[in-house]
Write a structure and sequence with these properties.
Elements (H helix, E strand, L loop, with lengths): L2 E9 L5 E8 L4 E5 L6 H16 L7 H11 L6 H22 L3 H4 L8 E9 L2 H13 L4 E6 L28 E4 L1 H19 L4 E5 L6 H10 L7 E3 L9 H8 L4 E3 L10 H5 L5 E2 L8 H14 L3 E2 L9 H13 L6 E2 L5 H6 L5 E3 L2 E3 L12 H5 L10 E4 L4 E2 L2
Parallel strand pairs: 4-5, 4-12, 5-7, 6-15, 7-8, 8-9, 9-10, 10-11
Antiparallel strand pairs: 1-2, 2-3, 4-14, 13-14, 15-16
Helix pairs in contact: 1-3, 2-3, 3-10, 5-6, 7-8
The structure holds (2S,3R,4R)-2,3,4,5-tetrahydroxy-N-oxo-pentanamide (EZ4) and cobalt (II) ion.
The site of (2S,3R,4R)-2,3,4,5-tetrahydroxy-N-oxo-pentanamide has 10 residues, from loops.
Length: about 400
């Protein structure tokens, strides 16, 4: 069997997605997600200009060899653009391999290690009562784990990360980034009282998470982790930017609040020290941004050796193709932790017909051969690309900060 064609489909059903579709001379097809939020066309061009011409005529069964060919062959290794492009090819080839075998991809990865994939949802509120109502909605729908984000009621903060009035949270909006104002002292003062209110209302069993979105320094994160210890978080996410992996050692010295990080990681080298030194508890790398199932499996296997569990990123800027692929891996690996899950907009679901389903706090991957997801190209064509950037954040004095 040979790869006979491959094309990149850019579509905006509520938000932008970049999808690779590979076809073989025997009529099988595979899909891979290549969406890099706010930088979509860079990955589309990388695939179109530099990857697809070399794919035609290759044997689709040679997944590892193709991965190595694209990674080593670029000479310029790693980086989110390169690794998202490699991920799209890798994911599509796993989809094809599943169809050739007549098996869902999780069977090719070793079969089930559990009955379902435990997911967490995003609760948020402009006020604590609104937040409690949002959490109650998730509990009523069977969720066992909920991420808690609440607006900070302080004049120093114009826009708190993760809080939105719209039914579907969508941070990428205007073509030129929107600007938010941020104050760490106001945030640190407010958040422990939010968790106190949630625990008081929902008791000890509900698993609670919180995303700092890279806005603290290690010592500030250590203080927050310590302040949140009475509320027994499942994880505190992205407490600090992770370029300096040593920074996490300082957090670790001061708090037993578990730490999750990795949604912006694209390679095992971004987390090698974090995992080897047991500086984190959950690694959040994803299929689409970390080189596909082939490379993500490698990261998760390294994590398993060091008591680190998985918590893959699953926000709405990862398409249903990514979510499908993630669920197959989540089901198969021994050290699965939690899977993030935000429901997509109805128009996104219509563009990406998929067989995974939510039931009582779990997601279940499709039992169809392959990944169990496709792209409806006629439907996709109805939604042309719209430039949309993620916001930026500044401190009160105008200094650029981390959004
Ligand atoms: O801001 O996916 O945990 N989830 C997150 C996300 C990220 C977006 C960035 O594209 O932090 O909401
Ligand atoms: Co996050």
């Amino acid at each position: 069997m040979r790869i006979s064609s491959a094309r990149v489909i850019v579509t905006c059903p509520g938000r932008n997605f970049v999808t690779l579709k590979i076809e073989t001379d025997e009529g099988l097809t595979g899909v891979g997600d290549a969406t890099l939020n706010g930088r979509e066309l860079a990955v589309a061009a990388y695939l179109n200009e530099h990857v697809l011409p070399a794919l035609i005529g290759r044997d689709p069964a040679r997944i590892e060899d193709t991965w190595q060919y694209l990674y080593r062959g670029a000479y310029w290794r790693r980086g989110p653009v390169t690794m998202s492009a490699i991920a799209a090819v890798d994911t599509a080839l796993w989809d094809i391999k599943g169809k050739v075998a007549g098996l869902p991809v999780y069977q090719l990865l070793g079969g089930r290690s559990r009955d379902g994939v435990t997911v967490y949802g995003h609760a948020n509120g402009a006020t604590v009562p609104e937040l409690l109502e949002s959490v109650a909605g998730f509990v009523a729908r069977g969720y066992r784990a909920v991420r808690i984000q609440a607006a900070v009621p302080a004049s120093e903060i114009s826009d708190t990360y993760g809080v939105s009035a719209a039914p579907i949270y969508e941070p990428a909006s205007s073509a030129i980034p929107a600007e938010a104002v941020w104050s760490t002292p106001a945030y640190l003062h407010h958040i422990p009282s939010v968790f106190a209110a949630v625990r008081a209302e929902f008791g000890p069993a509900l698993r609670l998470l919180h995303d700092v979105h890279h806005r603290l320094t290690p010592i500030e994160a250590a203080r927050l982790g310590r302040a949140l210890e009475p509320y027994a978080l499942t994880w505190l996410e992205d407490p600090v930017p992770a370029e300096l992996q040593d920074g996490f050692r300082l957090i670790r010295q001061h708090t037993t609040t578990p730490i999750a990080v990795g949604e912006v990681f694209n390679s095992i080298w971004d987390c090698e020290q974090l995992i080897r030194e047991q500086l984190i508890d959950y690694v959040r790398a994803t299929v689409v941004h970390a080189g596909g199932l082939t490379h993500l499996r490698r990261i998760f296997d390294l994590a398993a050796l060091h008591h680190v569990r998985t918590g893959s990123h699953g926000a709405t800027d990862l398409s249903p193709v990514s979510m499908s692929a993630a669920l197959h891996l989540d089901l198969a690996i021994p050290n699965f932790g939690l899977q993030e899950y935000m429901a997509h907009a109805p128009e996104t679901d219509a563009v990406f017909p998929h067989g995974y389903r939510y039931e009582g706090g779990y997601l279940h991957p499709s039992e169809e051969p392959g990944l169990g997801v496709d792209i409806d190209e006629d439907e996709a064509a109805r939604y042309p690309y719209r430039a949309a950037s993620l916001p930026v954040a500044r401190l009160e004095d105008g200094t650029m900060h981390n959004w």
